DNA sequence: GACTATAGCTTCAGGTATTGAACTAAGGAC
DNA sequence: GTCCTTAGTTCAATACCTGAAGCTATAGTC
């Protein structure tokens, strides 16, 4: 029932230009000649379009390759210095702001620590805005060369006329972060759930590259997932799709911090694993404690493999992905030791056809990828529209 | 990472024409003037495009409405007699072939019963081909006025160069039904899983109309789901997405006929419910037996509500649909009596934000909708491309 | 019954797109 | 220095949507 939008000839250009840019971004550098093959466009179109992009300084020449017995090919690539993007990670204990060039090379970063239960929205907004000024100064990038700011936040991000954030652990209930940011900066702002931005980072720059159907599973103290269908992050009707952690795997099962019972998170979240192992809740160094459990407690290890395998099998059956990535600090620890067992458990619990079609691997990016993924939201918009910089810098 | 296809100006026309046709199909009849508002296209474009479609006889005039003090509006609608579509339901006990006009009014149907465990692919193919001839004769429709044949089959439908079908219960392991059909008819053939075609029918003509994000849940003796994201049926990487029935809801739970343990189907499939109620497996009239259980066995009722509510809550959390439809013969029986309880259980087990955003209702179409949905596959293709009839009638 | 207002619809020039074909550019081989 | 090969550009042809102007068909009015 997808009723597409009206289209005009200009949309054709926009779409083709976006495709060309994406091709150069991911498969570049490439010559005009190679681009005809990669994009399917004619040499004439490639010629005029690359001419435009060169004039706009969005792409630049990148040397030559001689072709045996003919005119050498001029390589083209996206100009990494054309613009910069900013990514922000709003987490339990810190606000981190990072500045990247278009190739996602980090140019500057700044961290502000937050005291637990001091997540006042005004404070967080001030930190973000201050952080933007700091990284721009450190990176010596003028504000009018910034394409936008992406922000990864905890909780559910409701996209509408105004972006509202519901984050129980922060005491945020419908906080209008988008409006607050617009009051403090003229840069375009993109906001999404931190687990989704991290998934987006893995999809674009990590182990998810090239996958059209994938699930990126994040296991930390909480558990979440980014579902990718047909190359696009699935959002659902109110942008809360991917809440995998509170999927129930048992009727009247273990108590979860969400208030429910039998949530997957209560079994395979870091807190759940430690609790099952009888580690006292007063422990502060969770990674170390989890490491000890994963080295010694064979019962807990066995259970963890079984529960995680079952959870992944459910994803496989329902979504039929070609690839599942396991990420998050706890996920990477678990996966490093137990991946073969997890794979076997997932296969045993899934139907044969989709089970065999799915590869289960570890994420490549560390837990620091939230800000990178948030910045990727800006990059995505830029590659699709290649909107000229002046437009928002002026506003 | 969606890398779109190259586009040309002709794609613009194709897309807009498809949109116009869809608009007329679902919101028609409408005048040219109204269509400008509904499609966003200019009056000039509407004029030329409707001119084309009228010349092709794809749309027809449908009376006039006088406008106060001006030229009356000429109403346009899709010509229901422009072409016909055929839908086929290949099930455990029968092969059913139905002929529809473009408005999906049934014009003829024929049923062939299959003996259990006589699902030889050659036999089934012969039945389908014979059925096509019969309904065309009965409906007095020449073969060159048929836009195509849609077939709903059990099992997993692997779409590739050749459509292969894996249906354990039929003993089909990679059966090339597409190729076999092409050998017997020149009509275009579309094949999909029967649960998906039924979901498609609900989405287009039943309780799913207008939903962009929905899940259509089918409960019969087996359990399946059709996941709709952004208006499109989700297929996954090998077209097996939607296998909800073998989602595990308990570690080492009830034995399922798939060989696994703890599958949702083993709890809320008709067979699973009857088994939990202690109804002997020799029972032949399942619907009657299920009816008795749902009237009298309060323990089983309570459990069923709990398990189904939990299963639905998992869908809500993971997919964030705006609507969930419960269908299938057993699903309709269960839902008729227990819907309020199921809603409450689903809400109790899901996160607040997506839970409140999801409405859970019953399907509108009976279990007969498999063939209708299969025919809809052809209709969908027609509305998108409005490919002239001659092309395939000639081949 | 002619005239006018009104609303629906069509035609046409103008602008934007892609494309194939012809053409120019740049290097190597003999 | 001529020819071959490969890379890239220019241009006429074709297709599309749109705004503006014009045409058509009705109701109301005198």
Automatic annotation (TrEMBL), chains A, B:
Transmembrane segments: none annotated. Pfam families: ROK. GO terms for molecular function: kinase activity. It comes from the Bacteria. Gene3D superfamilies: 3.30.420.40, Winged helix-like DNA-binding domain superfamily/Winged helix DNA-binding domain. Keywords: Kinase, Transferase. The keyword Signal does not apply. InterPro entries: ATPase_NBD (IPR043129), ROK (IPR000600), WH-like_DNA-bd_sf (IPR036388), WH_DNA-bd_sf (IPR036390). Belongs to the ROK (NagC/XylR) family. This is Sugar kinase. It comes from Acrocarpospora phusangensis.
